[in-house]
Amino acid sequence: MLLMADLLPSGLLEACVVVGVSDDRLREACEKQGREQELPLLDAEVLQVHVPPFVTKEDVWGSQSGVTRVQRCRSFIKKKKESLMPAADSATKSQEADAQDVSVPTDIDLVALPQLCFPGGLQVAYESCEDSFHFLVFTDVLGNRTHGVVVQYYKSVQDTVLYPNGQQSSSKGPRLYCPFGICLISKYSYYNALKDCLSCLMLQLRACRWMDWRGMVKEFAAKLALVPLPPPGHLHLVFNLRPLLIVLPSKEDKEQPAVDLDLHLPFLCFKPRQLLQVITGILTEQRMVFFSSDWARLTLVAECFMLFIRPLVWQHPFVPVLSRQMLDFVMAPTSFLMGCHLHHFEEVASETDELILINMDNGTVSSSGSESVLIPDMPAVAEECFLRRMDALQVHYDLHVCHLGISADINELRAQRRQWQQSLNMEIQKITLELMVNIFREVHDHLNYEHRVFNSEEFLKSRNLMDQPFYEKVLETHIFHSFLKDRLNRKMDAFSRLELSTRSEAQRLKVGIESPRRLTMLEMARKNSTPENRLSKRLGVSMPNLGEEQAVGFPPRQTSLKKLPLESAAKISPWPIKTFHLPEFPNPLDYHKVQSFYSELISLLDKAISLVSPDNSGLLARYYYLRGFLNSTAGKQLDALRDFQNLYRTDMDIFPNELVRALVDSLPKEERQLAEKRSEIKRLISRIKKDREMDQFRRDDTVKKFELPKKHMQQEDFVKRVQESGIVKDVETIHRLFEALTVGQQKQVDPELFRVFYTFWKETEAEAQDVHLPPGVIEHLDTSECVYKLSSSIKTSHGVGKIAMTQKRLFLLTEGRPGYVEITKFRDIEEVKVSSAPFLLLRIPTLKIKRSSRKEIFEANLKSECDLWNLMVKEMWAGRKMADGHKDPQYMQQALTNVLLMDAVVGCLQSQKAIFAATKLAYFDKVKLEVPMMVPKTTSETLKHKINPSLDLTSPQAVDVLLYTPGQLSFTDSDSSGNPKLWCALSDGKVVVFDAASWSIQHDSIQVGVSRLNCMLRLDQHQVWIGSQDSVIYIINTHSMSCNKQLTEHRSEVTDFALDETTGKNEIQAYSCSADGIVILWDVATLRVRKQYRLNCDRLLSIQLVGGTLWCCARDCITEMKKAGVVCRKMKMPTAFSCFLLLPETEQLWTGCTDAGGICVWHCSDLTNPSQKIQLQDCTGVNCMIRVKDQVWAGCRGGVGGKAKGKIYVVDSEKCTVEKELAGHTDMVQALCSAEDRYVLSGTASEDGKIAIWKVE
After folding, report:
1. Angle between helices 669-677 and 637-645 (to 10 degrees)
2. What is the rounded distance in angstroms from the CA atom of residue 744 to the CA atom of residue 741?
3. Which of 471, 817, 968, 1252 has a CB 3.0–4.6 Å from the CB of 978, allowing a cystine?
4. What is the spatial distance between Cα 789 and Cα 904, in angstroms, rounded to a whole number?
5. In what residue span(s) does the UDENN domain sit (predicted)?
């Protein structure tokens, strides 16, 4: 029991400390009251320390001695006049030696505590004062914080000081009152709750005799020690301390602190701009001192600001209350946030320079010293949005309740006030989180996840000039560095969820299209003027019309959140708040009563769990968590592990990893043997061991700033440096760039050459931001077009001007009065060549472009630029042809990147070999000679579009599984969450989700384990199941896009799912199968196993439910099995099956094999021999099949010249004949899915790694 207490996380109470003046000092004060007019300040001492556990088997409450190991008094302050004190007798020494055994938590400094409990000093008074509260924060050397709530109350000295003979003092002088302090210390910031607890205690202490108050304080502390903490989420705990009901609010998630204070206090203290100044000071890590005449206000307001900057976390000293003896702390040279009483303002301001002085009482922000500290302005867009949100905030409770009557029940009044405060706190958290997102939204654009690099220089350049001073300071701070770690770890916290949910369509497309940064025409128009007409987008809930050409560039970009409604932000509390009432505290507090208290509490949780609807898994998870914690406290380790195991199927987000590991490690031998016999606990222990092994191989957690190389680079190092720079990610493209920069020399890149290349690239990028086109030119271009290259002023056949290149066309920007003359779209080019034109006695190089749209040939006297423009135009022309032929817009983006790299190579080499070097980057111009520009006619007519799920990665990834989910009409038109989605499983457990209404990436990285994913199933509008090679079924919530549930019953890799929709509307069942032959039937509502079967087969691959029969396809056989688990038939083949398809209307079974180029069709009544064989030309193996209308689509591996090529065969299911042979992939097709029977989507292995969208006839 004692051992487990050390392993468990602490409950509500960490310690209860009584602080005041010793009896001897009080006697002295009584004696001096007649001789001295002014009463002196006294030194406060620790009088009592109470720490849990209060009750053990060995030490029962209420023993005859009346003394337990925590009921001891000790002075922790050495008396100043020790020489004047009488020598202690042996009994006293013995008692003080005993006191050394008091088990005080190591992170509590009892030496400094008396000063903090009486920060203004302890003084005996002639009049009693009202009880006074204030709040403390303690920080240990590791930065862990502990919180304290202090009440100061006054007692009559004459009533409290007893002389040795037991007679009360007979002093005739005026009555004296001495303050005492009680400090409740907790690891959790429950300021309001602990203040309410102390208020209840004060009512009891006023009514009791002084001789009883020590025991009453101890009993009070013992009660609080029984209170568990609420689990993270939406379940609050309530307990009765009489006369008040105390509410413990839960944390939002495991890593967020509990919010148990009034977040609107800073809004009452400061005007909006001063409030933003304070936030800016914190974000820039200034040396900050808060001042107030109210000690309580210091900590509460400072803690509010700590919550306002979330997810950033203050990393420096945080001491919101400094006693008068601690004022020298403000002279520390490092960043800090401290608090002092207002009457120290002038002293602190005059003694220390460069402090930010924040006066809460009058709402001013100033600085100390002769030179003022410059606090940079908040970024303008973020500030404007924040100020507008604040204007709409209602922070006055009286206005909220002015129409309501007054209840006579104090707890009802408190509940009403608490509900209003919780709602207001949520609104404030939304506003401040939105502020942080507005400030740091575009940080992710400058992160390289593979090498953990942040390009701070480029991020800074991308900021508005007026905002740069703010970012210059913030980027150098510790809190921003920690924030970067979380972003590079792809942490899915409230910041990430809000940032994702409020991305504009343009920002989502930026994830899906890799192209250099340039201003679109729409952005340019907005930058130069305010156009009256803004584009409006309409995203349907069904599939888009893919017959129309999709723009390769970006749609209108929304620059910030300032135009987004706050309601679009991710909801902070998706579930309604629930409360759970603890039973009454036992009396007396002996061991058996405490055990009965825990038993009753567990029984109440059992009842609550039985009453919760199975679909309310979030509330169930909180009950399981709480019961597991209590079972741990009661020493029932196996029951606790069972409860925590249930979190896998209810909510993994709150799984207490450290506690469960501690429980597993502490299991005695006998209980470990019992655990081996309980399958669910055995699985949990196995999983914990596996996770611990994986922890040893976790990647580096460092964050690096991009720096130019200082040494020569071989190809591998060059690839890394270019990726870190953010120029391009694709490895093959970087290899070609390496060849270009090392033409005619040793195969290594000089650091000076890299610097010149990088500088040229960035300067070109910056110059493009300064290109200003007149409105008359902009109106001729698409809103998504960008100008990527401008020539010098030249003579052309269309007049004098500059040739401009966008991703779609060439046009002439005429001189004089700037005008627009279209030269050609890239798809209309028929021929490009270089010739020369006579000029006096010279021949000037001329670029000639033959166009299909016009008869005359365009000529441009480009002089020295001619060869470069020839290469660039040819590459863009070839890329356009490839993109049109293969219906793949990425080819055009890649051609554009190649062209800009050519320009940079020529610009940095500045030699005769520069053009030859640039030809190394002319990829598509060379490929068109080797690969057909156009795909076969049938393929071209059927293929509608291609998308690349690996575009944000350094190399293509295999598309292992595809799943299409239809749209939901319940969502508003402005909410893209209701659009249809395409789920794509890539290597190593990564899931990419596309918005199927626009084919933009909606979520670029949902991580579900680290193994290959084998199958997906949509069960309803709320969840998608994913089967993994690691034997786990991961469940994704389709609204939050988070994976917070897991099913761990399988022992081998999960290979397929089947949905049973025949059980009725109110009951959904699903089957899953694993490679070892196990088939499990799940109750979807409860996520519990209903039945389990085992088939004797070699690698079970897939299952299909038809009527009351479950068909199972393994590598060596196909088995027909009844729902009850009875095997009806089994069919074996000498070749290895790879997939199968059952057509119930025709009673046919179609099978494909991994090493055979055909499909076998069987009649279900005779499985001895196939009734028909469909030969697939140039096919070496069938990987997958789906049925769409009256067709069967088969994804196959084709063989062309010894190289694997992906093919899809469309077979008429009635005639059993091949209708189409589609060759649109360069690697084998291994995933197929249907989208509303209108389109088929195909995914391929890693050499191709793309998804093709095919039209169904």
Report:
1. 40
2. 9
3. 968
4. 11
5. 82-494
Give whole-number Cα distances, 248 to 569, 586, 629, in Å: 26, 20, 16
Q: Does residue 492 sit in helix, strand or coil?
A: coil
Identity of the amino acid at 582:
L
Note whether 137 and 191 are within 8 A (CB).
no
Q: Are 1244 and 960 in contact (CB under 8 A)?
A: no
The pLDDT tens digits of the residues spanning 880-920 come to 999 988 889 899 999 999 999 999 999 998 888 899 999 99
How far, in Å, CA of 43 to CA of 324, rounded?
13
What's the pLDDT tens digit per position in 132-157? 999 999 988 777 899 999 999 988 87
Cβ–Cβ < 8 Å for 139, 319:
yes
Amino acid at 669: K
Cβ(1208)–Cβ(1228) under 8 Å? Answer: no
Determine the Cα–Cα distance for residues 196 and 208; give it in Å rounded to an integer: 19
Verify cis geometry, omega within 30 degrees of 0, for the bond prior to 311: yes
The encoded tokens of residue 1219 equal 């209708």
Query: C-alpha angle 1204/1206/1207, rounded to 5°?
Result: 125
In whole angstroms, what separates CA 144 from the centre of its chain? 22
Sign of the torsion formed by the C-alpha atoms of 330, 336, 341 and 347: positive
Buried b (16+ CB within 10 A) or exposed e, 417-446: ebeebbebbbbbbbbbbbbbbbbbbbbbeb
pTM of the entire predicted model? 0.86
Which residues have C-beta within 8 Å of that of residue 37, sequence separation ≥ 6? Answer: none
- Cβ atoms within 10 Å, residue 972: 10
Q: Is 986 helix (H, G, I), strand (E, B) or coil?
A: coil
**Distance (Å, whole) CA 868 – CA 871:** 5
Nearest-angstrom CA–CA distance, 644 and 625: 6
Q: 364-407, pLDDT tens digit by residue?
A: 999 987 677 788 999 999 999 999 999 999 999 888 888 888 88
- Cα separation, 288 vs 331, in Å, equals 11
Of 273, 338, 576, 237, residue with least CA distance to 352? 338
Mean pLDDT of the residues in the chain: 84
Q: Give the residues across from 72 on adjacent strands.
A: 49
Tell me which residue has tokens 């279900």.
Answer: 1164
> What are the structure tokens assigned to 206, written together?
């006023």
Q: 420 and 397 in contact (C-beta within 8 Å)?
A: yes
